[in-house]
Design goal:
This protein is 43% helix and 24% strand. The protein is built from 10 helices and 17 strands.
Length: 449
């Protein structure tokens, strides 16, 4: 609150009140400082929480046998065929020959002058796609190619075809229009047939020109015949999806191998997220969370897991046997990917077990530890809940203190404004008395005439 400087006595009301309020605000300043400290701590725990979540997610990728079932499929001719392998695949190679690609049935009508002129036919037209049927009615409102096209495409009963119009040369310098029907699906079961329930629409259109037959993909995989309704073929080679694009009577080889590069990348992500977490713990311990025992406890939990061997899961007990070593000074990990890949190639099962065993596996233990920090009884959850509660209490006190100071400030301005007024009146009285006294005759002196 601002007040005016003394206009009567010249008393510096603003300056006096500001100095008094500086003293009054000491308690508020202390509360605000505490609040800022808690906000900083809360932000530090937020950063820790984010790093813990990233670490947990990295551990999730390594925490079960299934997560290591990563395969890749390579084609010797990706223009002809490509392949994708999933966790159910197995290492192997297959020779694939393609004698026929799957295609959707496509038929066209006779030629008409254009798409807007009436075809001079009407009635109920039944359209059948492999036994599934729907009917449209053609009358004077839609008896052009464009009208029939729209009736087919916008029918709520459409069972899976698309109607289009093809405008082509008529051979004598002009153009002519054809109605084209295409099945939405490929395969021999996509055949389109038409029937006049009433009238002569089908007869007039004469959709007998087959632009593309309804046919299946036909393949030979290692000498076995395969027929499939579309060109994206799953389930023939377990865990592998084939995408065939061209005829190939010679044969293309599909190689299925374990994707060691992806596995190595997952382990590298583990090392990086662990190091980020350890680094953040070191930074916060020296700054915002200095002397916070919770941070010490968090780091101890991580190092305890790192130093506890997985003795009964396989041939490996410690991560350093896989090329993952610890820096004694910083506590961070170093990853030798070349050594890891060599160990992975020699003993894949042993590597999987040391990470993913649900009792002693490093990834499983780290994952459970990280996930537990944010649960109701977890360290991060307990600390952040406690800080938030203290912040809430402090902010309530700050609000009350601010309201109190506003009242105090108003009172000071009122008091010192009144004092200024009184001093002004005293000054006026003093000036008046001095004037009167100066005009009084002095004894022994005569007045000059």
């Amino acid at each position: 609150m601002q007040g005016a400087a003394g206009i009567g006595s010249g008393l510096d009301v603003n300056g006096i009140v500001e100095q008094l309020m500086d003293v009054e605000k000491r308690n508020l300043t202390g509360l605000q400082t505490k609040d800022q400290t808690l906000q900083t701590q809360l932000s530090a725990y937020g950063t820790l929480k984010n790093n813990i979540h990233n670490f947990r997610d990295a551990m999730e990728v390594l925490s079960s046998n299934e997560k290591f079932q990563i395969f890749k499929a390579d084609s010797t001719n990706s223009d002809v065929i490509t392949a994708i392998a999933d966790k159910d695949a197995s290492v192997g190679n297959y020779t694939v020959k393609i004698s026929q690609l799957a295609a959707a049935h496509k038929i066209s009508s006779d030629a008409f002058v254009d798409a807007e002129t009436s075809i001079a036919a009407s009635g109920d037209l039944e359209i059948d796609v492999d036994g599934e049927k729907f009917t449209i009615t053609v009358d004077s409102n839609n008896d052009s190619l464009s009208g029939i096209r729209d009736s087919i495409n916008f029918s709520l009963d459409n069972v899976g075809i698309k109607a289009t119009i093809l405008n082509v040369d008529d051979g004598v310098g002009g153009t002519q229009s054809h109605l084209v029907l295409t099945s939405n699906n490929t395969g021999s079961n996509s055949t389109i047939t038409l029937n006049d329930v009433s009238g002569d629409v089908s007869t007039t259109l004469n959709l007998s020109n087959e632009l593309s037959p309804a046919q299946d993909a036909v393949l030979d995989i290692d000498g076995f015949a395969v027929t499939h309704e579309n060109n994206l073929i799953s389930g023939v080679i377990e865990g592998v999806t084939l995408d065939v694009n061209q005829i190939d009577l010679v044969g293309t080889t599909i190689n299925i191998t374990r994707d060691d590069t992806s596995i190595t990348k997952s382990v590298e992500d583990f090392v990086n997220t662990y190091n980020n977490l350890i680094g953040d713990i070191a930074i916060q311990s020296a700054d915002s969370l200095n002397n916070d025992s919770s941070i010490t406890f968090l780091k101890s939990g991580l190092t305890d897991i790192l130093n506890t061997p997985a003795n009964s899961v396989g041939d490996f007990s410690y991560l350093h046997e896989l090329g993952i070593t610890t820096n004694a000074e910083t506590g961070k990990l170093a990853f030798d990917s070349t050594e890891f890949k060599s160990v992975l190639a020699q003993d894949f099962t042993g590597v999987v077990k040391i990470f993913s065993d649900n009792k002693e596996g490093f990834a499983a233990r780290f994952h459970d530890y990280a996930e537990g920090q944010d649960k109701t009884s977890g360290l991060i959850k307990i600390r952040t809940d406690g800080i938030n509660k203290r912040i809430s209490t402090l902010e309530s006190r700050i609000e009350k203190e601010e309201n109190h100071l506003e009242i105090v400030e108003k009172r000071y301005y009122k008091q010192f404004s009144l004092l200024d007024s009184l001093m002004s009146q005293l000054d006026s009285t003093t000036d008046y008395l001095n004037q009167q006294l100066s005009n009084m005759p002095v004894p022994g002196k005569s007045s000059k005439k």
